[in-house]
Structure formats: structure tokens, C-alpha cells
């Protein structure tokens, strides 16, 4: 498994992961293309490859001392293999390198598996956003400290 920065040539695979994993909440291909081409200066796309096949991606926005994990999507055939952890670790590394002292994310309150995944990796709930998703589901806002100022050592 290899995690690397995404490039424009990854567009079709990343867009397919969006559609297949995020359904109605998937970002349109045009927005993904903007991010991959570097036209969104605070946004970073990372991809994970397994045997040369793109099997997952993560998206983070990093601005000053705050990073936000916007996406992690993993192909179903590669779930529970450590791929999401590798992507999250790469996001954390990129955020720290950019000077962020905390990483935020939103997760659907009905996604117990994702909530447990993030909690096991040091994220704590800090807020809720009612009716955040298109289908009306509430989002749980979680935070992990990355630097000493925010409890991340």
C-alpha cells in the first residue's frame, strides 16, 4: 500500500470512489477536478494505492492552525485492511507539517463504525450539527489535538 498526493490523472478513480462511497453526499466531478488541479489552495487530496490500483482517498483543508478532514473513502474490497488508518495518518502528518494544532471532522451520527474508528484514534466529540446532511441526518463534529496548544503533544 502506498499513500501519495493525488494528481490530475487520478480524477476518474477519485470521482468513482466519491460516487460509490458517499452517494448523494458525493462531490461533483468538477469540484474534485478543481481540487486535484491545485485550484483550491487550502485543499489537499491524498490517495492510497494497492498493487497499482487506487483504492482510497482522503481530502483535507488546512488553513493556519486548523485542519479539517473533509473526506476519507475506501473501496469496499479494501476496508478493514488499515488503508483508512494510513490515509488518516498521512492527513495528520500533512496538517502538522503545515502548522495545524488540531484536526476537525464531521461524521454522520448514524455511522457508528466511523465514529468508533475516529474515537479510537484520539478524536472526541465537540459539537453536533442538526440536519447537516442532505437526508437530514445530524453531523457529529469531532476534534483531535495535533500540537501542545491543543492537547496533541
TrEMBL record:
<dbReference type="InterPro" id="IPR006464">
    <property type="entry name" value="AcTrfase_RimI/Ard1"/>
</dbReference>
<keyword id="KW-0687">Ribonucleoprotein</keyword>
<dbReference type="InterPro" id="IPR000182">
    <property type="entry name" value="GNAT_dom"/>
</dbReference>
<dbReference type="GO" id="GO:0008999">
    <property type="term" value="F:protein-N-terminal-alanine acetyltransferase activity"/>
</dbReference>
<feature type="domain" description="N-acetyltransferase">
    <location>
        <begin position="1"/>
        <end position="147"/>
    </location>
</feature>
<keyword id="KW-0808">Transferase</keyword>
<keyword id="KW-0012">Acyltransferase</keyword>
<dbReference type="InterPro" id="IPR050832">
    <property type="entry name" value="Bact_Acetyltransf"/>
</dbReference>
<keyword id="KW-0689">Ribosomal protein</keyword>
<comment type="similarity">
    <text>Belongs to the acetyltransferase family. RimI subfamily.</text>
</comment>
<protein>
    <recommendedName>
        <fullName>[Ribosomal protein bS18]-alanine N-acetyltransferase</fullName>
        <ecNumber>2.3.1.266</ecNumber>
    </recommendedName>
</protein>
<dbReference type="Pfam" id="PF00583">
    <property type="entry name" value="Acetyltransf_1"/>
</dbReference>
<keyword id="KW-0963">Cytoplasm</keyword>
<dbReference type="GO" id="GO:0005840">
    <property type="term" value="C:ribosome"/>
</dbReference>
<comment type="function">
    <text>Acetylates the N-terminal alanine of ribosomal protein bS18.</text>
</comment>
<dbReference type="InterPro" id="IPR016181">
    <property type="entry name" value="Acyl_CoA_acyltransferase"/>
</dbReference>
